[in-house]
Amino acid sequence: MELIYFKDYHELSLAAHQWVLENISSCKEPSIFVPAGGTPKGLYKIWEQSDKAWAKGVKFFQIDEVITGSKKNLFMDFFDEHLPSFKDQIINITLDQQNRASLGILGLGLNGHVAFHEPHMEPDFTFGEVELTESTRKTLELEDGARGLSYGAGAFLNTEAVLLIVSGEGKREVFQKFLNKDMDLPVSHLHKHDRLMVMALEELKP
C-alpha cells in the first residue's frame, strides 16, 4: 500500500486524476470502477473540465446502486449530473451483467463499507444484491428495508490497481481502523491488493 496525504481536497482530486492518467495508459482494455457520492465529486469536476483524449475508449462501470424505494436509481442520477460528458461511456450496474474493470476508484464509507459491500457480508463478496445497513440507509436517507446492487472487495481485488480516496467529515475513526487492518471492515480487505494507492486529507491523519 502507498499512502499519501494532502492539505486540501482540490490538491487530492488533482492527484487522483494524475493517478488515473498514469495507470489507464497501460491497460489493454481500459475500464474503471467508479463510485457515486461526495468523495469523487472533485475528481469528476476535473474530468469534465479536462481534455478528454485520455478517456477515449474507456468504459466506466458504476459500482453500486439503490434498487428499491423512492430513491431507486439514486446513483444513476448522480452520474447524469456530475459526469454528463461521459454519459455514453458509463455502464450502469444491472443484476444480469457482471463486469471486470482494469482500475478501481473507491471511497471509504462511514461504517467501513466499500461500494455497498457492507460489514455483515462475506469478505470475498464480488457482486450481487445486498441488504443495506441502518447506517447506510441513514446516510442516504433511505427507507427501512432498502436494498442495493453492488460490486464488492472480491471484484476490486481483481483489478490491476486500486485508488482509495478518503475525505469527508466523521471518517477519522474508520480510517484509523482501515490503517490498522481491522478485517471486520470490508474496505480493509483492499490491503491484499499489490497495487493499492490511498489518498487522504491531512486532517484525517491518526
Give your account of this protein's structure:
Helix 1 packs across helix 2. This protein has a single domain (2-46, 58-204), classed as 3-Layer(aba) Sandwich (Rossmann fold), CATH 3.40.50. The chain is built from six helices and ten strands, in the order βαβαββαβββαβαβαβ. The strands form two sheets. The protein has a seven-stranded parallel sheet, with helices on one face. A three-stranded antiparallel sheet has the order 4-8-7. The mean pLDDT is 97. The chain is 26% helix and 22% strand. Strand 9 (161-166), helix 6 (172-179) and strand 10 (196-201) form a beta-alpha-beta unit.
What is the name of the CATH architecture?
Answer: 3-Layer(aba) Sandwich
Cross-sheet strand order for the largest sheet: 1-10-9-6-2-3-5
Q: What does the radius of gyration come to?
A: 16 Å
Q: Measure the end-to-end span.
A: 17 Å
Quick structural overview:
Helix content is 26%, strand content 22%. With 206 residues, the protein is α/β, with parallel strands linked by helices. The protein is globular, with a radius of gyration of 16 Å.
Show the helix and strand layout:
Elements: E1 2-6, H1 9-24, E2 31-34, H2 41-49, E3 59-62, E4 64-66, H3 74-82, E5 90-91, E6 103-107, E7 127-131, H4 134-140, E8 147-151, H5 153-156, E9 161-166, H6 172-179, E10 196-201
Parallel strand pairs: 1-10, 2-3, 2-6, 3-5, 6-9, 9-10
Antiparallel strand pairs: 4-8, 7-8
Helix pairs in contact: 1-2
What attributes characterize this protein structure?
22% strand; 7-stranded parallel β-sheet; Rossmann fold; 6 helices; alpha/beta; 206 residues
